[in-house]
């Protein structure tokens, strides 16, 4: 009979005790727990606080009484292990003020982890909490109820921090979240955390990245930027460290973060002492380096394997991947293996792909988008994966983690036979698609670049549709829709590499195939514009639904038109909006439901670009629900003066379409424009078709072929070469009028253009006309902006003067 003493009765310790008894009836097993509870579901604590879990007793997986009665295990709760005497193989414990010595043949340390503490003034107050166990949970729950908490500050954007933010918010508490780093969920890469930031803000969370608190007062906190925020309570959720004080004082060897160093059978530097769970160091499967991964699955698995070892069973060494998943309001985020930051630190070379897919078949109701990131070595080993989405995230991360566990290559992902039915998945599951894309990269020499590399390319082509391009693009990309690419190959230079992108990658891949088969050196932007936008968009902008006040007239009407666009990928929902808006009259409203949360920002940008009004825009029950009104809801802004009289702010802009390329008409355009600017008007000049010749740059020659070359030769080279509309006489008329202007001391057209720019007049070149007229951005003068008709129409809404010249 062996005397086995286990310190720590949660997860690893409880699992080891139960398995030891199932394998051996003779061992004398004693389980010591400093708290009053053993084997409780600590991952469920935030959800009981938020009333998602109603029955507190369901968090108690096992009780001391049941363990003693059914397993014949001696359970000592409210007992502190104070000192290990390795030589005598004794453990000093204290309970109810009394000390006692326990002899052991085997000592198992499963003391878990403790919250990281930071120096913050006022952290010792009774409204400042951490959350690690049942008593912590009970204190927080009681405080919220007894003090009628209205505001809270959560410090730390990891698992516990995010779960507490969501559950406090569910109770109607206004929450501020502070994260000292530049992203929440530090285990995932920045572009995968970006949609979490946007979603947190959409839910009304006051997200504060790269900020911290310095002082906690009775009902406020002070930030490192000297801002004071209301905070009836504060949750410190910065992270955890191994609770290894007992081991350290006993002289056991420690490793990463002072976790206890163990071998492949969990044995410490002392042959009679073992360590498992959050207090112990592990070896990562991918890096083969020691690390600290405080996860419940690892602790429970270690407990079982250690019991097997102590009873003579052999097993393959446990090398975890660190597979995790978390719920963040309506989004789920998951990861396994290593992220890019860690791989870079390890000096490993790797490829990255991003796959946009759906949780189930798009034609079946309820399909929601997800983004899968897979990182793999040049020989195909999967280094890691990350997923963000609403539904099916857990299933996909488990599939990839399983493949990694059993040493499958990234290409093997395409071979996984995934159960398919429309409510559950697609015939081409996103995990399978990751395998196909990886094969293209590794075996088919399809070049990929990341979102932050694209702007460095001079030939950057956006192959999306014009309506998508108008809502935003990467850098100075040129729009050549996929359907027209074959007919427009002569616009591209084969001597330079071509960077291609679309919304999420599929059209970009097809475009890359076309170009590659036509002899171009082509690179596809991984993840497309969607990934670029979500990384570069600021998460600090509130949605329309979160405006503190609405303008008069902005009300949702009962007789609005309705569209169900759930399951559609971008640009599907926006195209649905446009199709319906084209059939509607000014003032009519359209409600649309979409399962892609990115639509929140898309519809706002589209409405702004097209001169329409977003009345409401919010996420509810896992969908974006937006109401858009055709046209601007208010032609004027109403405000009060100091005497309380209502004032009407009239429109004070001037817009003009410069269609003509004639010298005299161009002169008239700039005379009117500069005159309007002198009167304080905000002036926009929209140059389209022949009018583009007015703003050409002198001396600029662009290489062109075919019809583009012929077209270019027939047009004026710059403003100094424009003809006049009447009596041009082969250019003689233009020279005559210029001579007269000089004699009368009237500024030349070139000087007028310079003055217009110095006066802040906005000059916009129509990108569609540029394509038709074969005019590149390099040919136009500096300072010109680029846009489409939506840009021009947006400025006309602010104008009381609109001309077509």
TrEMBL record:
Pfam families per the UniProt record, alphabetical: DrsE_2, Pyr_redox_2, Pyr_redox_dim, Rhodanese, TusA
SUPFAM superfamilies with a match to the protein in the record: DsrEFH-like, FAD/NAD(P)-binding domain, FAD/NAD-linked reductases, dimerisation (C-terminal) domain, Rhodanese/Cell cycle control phosphatase, SirA-like
Lipoprotein among keywords: no
Keywords, comma-separated and alphabetical: FAD, Flavoprotein, Oxidoreductase, Redox-active center
Coiled-coil annotated residue ranges, if any: none
Cofactor(s) the protein needs: FAD
All copies of domain Rhodanese, residue ranges: 459-541
Top-level taxon in the UniProt lineage: Bacteria
GO molecular function: oxidoreductase activity
SMART domains recorded: RHOD
Record has Ribonucleoprotein as a keyword: no
Similarity-based family: Belongs to the class-III pyridine nucleotide-disulfide oxidoreductase family.
Protein name: Pyridine nucleotide-disulfide oxidoreductase
Organism encoding this protein: Macrococcus carouselicus
């Amino acid at each position: 009979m062996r005397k086995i003493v286990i310190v720590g009765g949660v997860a690893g310790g409880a699992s080891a005790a139960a398995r030891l008894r199932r394998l051996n009836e003779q061992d004398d097993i004693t389980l010591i727990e400093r708290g009053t509870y053993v084997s409780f579901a600590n991952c469920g604590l935030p959800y009981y606080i938020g009333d998602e879990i109603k029955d507190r007793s369901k968090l108690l997986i096992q009780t001391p009484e049941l363990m003693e009665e059914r397993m014949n295990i001696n359970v000592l709760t409210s007992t502190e292990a104070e000192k290990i005497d390795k030589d005598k193989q004794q453990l000093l414990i204290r309970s109810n003020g009394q000390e006692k010595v326990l002899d052991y043949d085997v000592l198992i340390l499963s003391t878990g982890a403790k919250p990281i503490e930071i120096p913050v003034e006022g952290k010792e107050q009774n409204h400042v909490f951490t959350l690690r166990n049942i008593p912590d949970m009970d204190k927080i729950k009681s405080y919220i109820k007894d003090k009628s908490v209205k505001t809270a500050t959560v410090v730390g954007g990891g698992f516990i921090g995010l779960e507490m933010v969501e559950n406090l918010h569910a109770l109607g508490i206004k929450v501020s979240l502070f994260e000292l780093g530049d992203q929440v969920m530090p285990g995932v890469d920045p572009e995968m955390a970006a949609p979490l930031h946007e979603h947190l803000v959409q839910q009304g969370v006051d997200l504060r990245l790269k900020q911290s608190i310095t002082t906690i007062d009775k009902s406020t906190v002070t930030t490192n930027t000297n801002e004071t925020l209301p905070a009836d309570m504060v949750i410190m959720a910065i992270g955890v460290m191994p609770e290894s004080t007992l081991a350290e004082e006993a002289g056991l060897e420690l490793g990463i973060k002072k976790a206890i160093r163990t071998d492949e059978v969990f044995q410490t530097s002392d042959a009679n002492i073992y360590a498992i769970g959050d207090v112990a160091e592990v070896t990562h499967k991918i890096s083969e380096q020691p690390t600290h991964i405080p996860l419940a699955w690892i602790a429970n698995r270690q407990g079982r394997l250690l019991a097997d070892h102590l009873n003579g069973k052999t097993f393959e060494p446990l090398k975890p991947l660190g597979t995790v998943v978390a719920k963040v309001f309506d989004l789920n985020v998951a990861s396994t293996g290593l992220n890019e930051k860690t791989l870079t630190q390890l000096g490993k070379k790797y490829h990255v792909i991003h796959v946009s897919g759906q949780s189930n078949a798009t034609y079946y109701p309820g399909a929601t988008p997800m983004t899968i990131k897979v990182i793999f070595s040049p020989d195909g080993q999967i280094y890691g994966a990350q997923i963000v989405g609403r539904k099916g995230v857990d299933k996909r991360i488990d599939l990839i983690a399983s493949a990694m566990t059993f040493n499958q290559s990234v290409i093997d992902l395409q071979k996984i036979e995934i159960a398919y039915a429309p409510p559950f998945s697609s015939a081409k599951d996103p995990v399978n698609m990751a395998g196909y894309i990886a094969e293209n990269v590794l075996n088919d020499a399809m070049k990929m670049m990341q979102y932050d590399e694209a702007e460095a390319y001079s030939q950057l082509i956006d192959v999306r549709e014009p309506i998508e391009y108008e809502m935003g693009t990467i850098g100075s990309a040129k729009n050549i829709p996929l359907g027209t690419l074959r007919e427009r190959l002569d616009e591209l230079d084969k001597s330079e590499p071509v960077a291609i992108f679309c919304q999420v990658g599929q059209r970009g891949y097809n475009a890359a195939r076309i170009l590659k088969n036509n002899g171009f050196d082509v690179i596809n932007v991984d993840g497309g514009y969607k990934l670029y936008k979500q990384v570069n968009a600021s998460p600090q902008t509130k949605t329309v639904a979160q405006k503190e006040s609405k303008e008069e007239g902005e009300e949702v009407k009962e007789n609005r038109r309705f569209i169900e666009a759930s399951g559609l990928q971008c640009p599907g929902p926006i195209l649905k909006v446009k199709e319906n808006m084209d059939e509607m009259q000014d003032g009519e409203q359209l409600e649309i439901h979409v399962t892609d949360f990115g639509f929140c920002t898309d519809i706002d940008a589209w409405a702004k670009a097209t001169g329409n009004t977003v009345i409401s825009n919010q996420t509810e029950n896992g969908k974006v629900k937006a109401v858009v009104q055709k046209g601007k809801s208010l032609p004027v802004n109403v405000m009060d003066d100091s005497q309380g009289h209502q004032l009407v702010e009239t429109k004070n802009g001037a817009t003009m379409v410069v269609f003509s390329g004639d010298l005299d008409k161009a002169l008239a355009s700039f005379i009117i424009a500069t005159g309007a600017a002198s009167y304080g008007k905000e002036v926009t000049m929209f140059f389209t078709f022949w009018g583009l010749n007015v703003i050409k740059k002198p001396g600029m020659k662009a290489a062109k072929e075919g019809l583009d070359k012929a077209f270019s030769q027939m047009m004026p080279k710059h403003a100094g070469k424009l003809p006049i509309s009447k009596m041009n006489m082969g250019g003689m008329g233009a020279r005559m009028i210029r001579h007269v202007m000089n004699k009368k001391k009237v500024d030349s057209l070139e000087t007028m253009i310079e003055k217009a720019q110095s006066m802040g007049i906005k000059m916009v070149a129509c990108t569609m006309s540029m394509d038709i007229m074969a005019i590149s951005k390099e040919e136009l003068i500096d300072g010109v902006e680029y846009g489409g008709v939506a840009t021009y129409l947006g400025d006309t809404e602010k104008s009381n003067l609109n001309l077509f010249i």
